[in-house]
Amino acid sequence: MASSAASPPTFSLLPSTSTSTSASSRRQPFSTHLSFSRSPVALRSPIHRLGFAGAAADPLLAIHVAGKTSAVVGRGVRGVVSMAKKSVGDLTEAELKGKVVFMRADLNVPLDESQNITDDTRIRAAVPTIKHLMSKGAKVLLSSHLGRPKGVTPKFSLAPLVPRLSELLGVQVGKTDDCIGPEVEKKAAALPEGGVLLLENVRFYPEEEKNDPEFAKKLAAVADLYVNDAFGTAHRAHASTEGVTKFLKPSVAGFLLQKELDYLVGAVSSPKRPFAAIVGGSKVSSKIGVIESLLEKTDILLLGGGMIFTFYKAQGFSVGSSLVEEDKLELATTLLAQAKAKGVSLMLPTDVVIADKFAPDAASKIVPCSAIPDGWMGLDIGPDSIKAFSEALDTTKTIIWNGPMGVFEFDKFAAGTEAIANKLAELSSKGVTTIIGGGDSVAAVEKVGVADVMSHISTGGGASLELLEGKELPGVLALDEAVPVPV
Questions:
Q1: Range of 426's domain?
Q2: Which of 214, 234, 355, 414 qualifies as a cystine partner to 408, CB 3.0-4.6 A?
Q3: How far apart are CA 290 and CA 469, in angstroms?
């Protein structure tokens, strides 16, 4: 173990020569000194903003969002990029008019103690698909879960969502007290064309998460076709995400699910280069798959958050009382070696903000990453690291961000995360494709107030991670195949 007075570690940052965008020559030798490529990157024309607000405000954008997304990020065939799944936009009016559509949405919004919605982002994200179905004369049965109920739990009822849904859709949304059974059958039969009926929390039944075939059959019983727009649950094989597709045809993706796939699959598989990923969070163990997958695809990989201290300790540096996963030290060393072997410019912070306790009012100071004293813990990246990360990102054309740089819930240790959010907003306005991969990163860009300028903000935490890891999502695999359509 090196002492705290040891020299700061040196990690590969950017190659000293400009990065080539060709597949054969884009990798540069791994460097152990700090150097930056300052050659300017040609900026593309500004892209259309495809965030929730933009999609909800522009019906035409919503209807053609998948195709427009592909065109924006420079890919050829939408179907291939989006895992070749049929979209609700591919259905004709004749296929929808008068038909009962079972639509799975992710309306799992936060509620306060008075059952008031505190963040309606997920509701607004579902609006374009619902409005499209309404405009084609479909009768929409809207299904979702809320929270983690154990059986019928009144506080997890979807009833508080009805007023906001009705306001956003411009119609009075009906509500059932169950998600299957006679009441659903009766109210579905009475729905007018363009009507919307919100079914009660599908997770009130344990059969939902067990993907019970009989329960799936009951969910599908009153519908003619299926639309899945719930990206946040697409990584789970549940009755309402996978099981119902065995009983309803066609089974297609909604616009939100399509857009998630276009960005998260398309941008990773065929990004504009240089391509950078920023991965943060507290533990290496939760991001192993993501880091390993991104090492195969990125030119630059920036690491922040609590996980960095496991990497530091693996390199022999004192980390004080910072968070360390002792059983992942060998893995951290392996990942560094993999980056070197693949020619990826891996970047770890060179300085950190440390605290004498884990609290918002803790005493703090900035030290080199090699000089964390005993009894102190790192809670954010330092100003030198912010500057170096920003300079690295200046050279890129595509960026994915998943995980904060520090304990951004505490204002005193939010500078690193907020600086990254602001940097991505700046680059997005210059034409760089910026993808916020769910979870705390989304909370960060919303806190800073720059969410609406990012190219794409993912609605799914776990689903985003699994896609970035290269895993297949059961809720997506179950949907109908589509013939690739050039855009």
A1: 272-449
A2: 414
A3: 5
Which residue out of 194, 431, 462, 470 is catalytically annotated? Answer: 462
Out of 89, 382, 439, 475, the active site residue is: 439
What does R_g of the chain's alpha carbons equal in angstroms?
24
Task: Tell me the C-alpha distance between 277 and 138, whole Å.
Answer: 41
Of residues 122, 272, 287, 297, which has the active-site annotation?
122
Residue 148 among the catalytic residues: no
Residue 349 backbone phi and psi in degrees, to 5:
-60, 145
Read off the pLDDT of residues 255-302 as tens digits, 9 standing for 90 and up.
Answer: 999 988 888 887 777 889 999 999 998 888 888 888 998 998 999 999
Pairing of strands 351-355, 377-381: antiparallel
pLDDT above 70: residue 58:
no
> Per the structure, how many domains does the chain have?
2
Residue 201 pLDDT: 98
Do the strands 251-253 and 100-104 form a parallel or antiparallel pair, or are they unpaired?
Answer: unpaired
pLDDT for the residue 119? 85
Residue 229 shares a structural domain with residue 95: yes
**Do residues 3 and 318 make contact, with C-beta atoms less than 8 angstroms apart?**
yes
Give, for 335, the enclosing helix (H) or strand (E): helix 329-342
| Cα dihedral across residues 183, 111, 243, 66: positive or negative | positive
Catalytic residue check, 340: no
Asked if the structure places residue 430 within a domain, the reply is yes
Give the residue from 295, 300, 399 showing the smallest Cα distance to 345. Answer: 300
d(CA 285, CA 304): 14
Q: Has 462 been annotated as catalytic? A: yes
Taking the C-alpha atoms of residue 380 and residue 304, their distance in angstroms, rounded to an integer, is 8
Q: What is the largest CA-CA distance in the chain?
A: 76
Q: Considering the candidates 44, 164, 283, 412, report the single residue annotated as catalytic.
A: 283
Give the separation between CA 435 and CA 457, rounded to whole angstroms.
Answer: 6
Count CB neighbours of 380 within 10 A. 30
DSSP state of 114: T
pTM value is 0.75
Could you tell me the CATH number of the domain that includes residue 169? Answer: 3.40.50.1260
In the residue annotation, 378 being an active-site residue is answered as: no
